[in-house]
Amino acid sequence: MTITTIASITMPTFYDKARNLNNLMSWMERAARAGAELVVFPEQVLQGYLPDTLNWDGKVVAWQMAQAETVPQGESVQALQQLAIQLNIHVVFGMTERHPERAEVLFNSAVLLGPAGLTGIYRKVHQPGDEKHVYYPGSDFPIFDTPIGRIGMLICYDKVFPESTRELALKGADIMIMPTAWGYTGDGSLGDNDPMVDSYTLFGRVRALENQCWMIESNLCGQLGNLHYHGHSRIIDPLGKIVADSGTTEGMALASVAVQPAILGARSSDYLGYHFLKDYVPVQAPPSPLTVHNRHAQPLGGNHE
Each residue of 191-205: pLDDT tens digit? Predict the structure, then answer.
């Protein structure tokens, strides 16, 4: 039986890319020493997430524009890629990605690196609040084949929409990876009783169970701008059980798991013998009347299969 060790990191981020890069590389080395073959980091951990999602600020846009990098040519991306190769690990991290041909086009992206270098890019499809003023939306939920399994990615708000993870599962994802910047409702004084922590937990466990595959979540901690983050980076199994949790402060959720046997069990005998994807009947639902379908961005976004 093949066992894979997965690490999901909770860490703060700062409006200081060099500092963030050093912290990322330090955690990669620490996770690798712990035996991790897959290391997952939060959303926008390289440049720092927006200071608020409901308060547009031109200085914030200018910061992200100045700090964005192309993939894999960017200096920070190159450093992370070289370290992933050196450590022989897979790494997922969040960043502001600049379109390779259109400098004014930015994406909120998750980058997958591996022992052979760049493996894939996912560009966030669902954008809340002021993300719409900074980033272009992605247009697809791609799957990437790796030695540790088929990996699909989503970012934060994508988790609210069941179609996101269902598409990944229907495409054959074994492991769904979600970098996130999921904050408290307020200043964090309610701790785990904060309703946003409850919804974070609910969405994560349900998305794993309803698709009967692994869900790896990595969240920020501490304060950045006006937002306070609750951590709880997690490894969730195909039955929706939280296998490992980092807690609310900087740390690592670490677990050694049998990726494929757990999926086979969940889809055969472990849940009353029900295989949800086999029994799934597609529903032809109309698009929302309140939004413009975001696939208009496809000519700029493209696919990174």
Answer: 999 999 999 999 999
